[in-house]
Amino acid sequence: MTERSPAPGGLALVEALVNTLDIESGADSLDTAEGRARFGITREDVEDVRALRESLRVVLLAHAGHPPHREVIPLGDLLAGAPLVVSVDRRDGSATLAPADEGPLVSRVAAAVAEALVAGTWARLKACEATDCLWAYYDRSPAGRGRWCSMQVCGARAKMRRYRAKG
Question: Residue 54 has what pLDDT?
Answer without folding.
Answer: 98
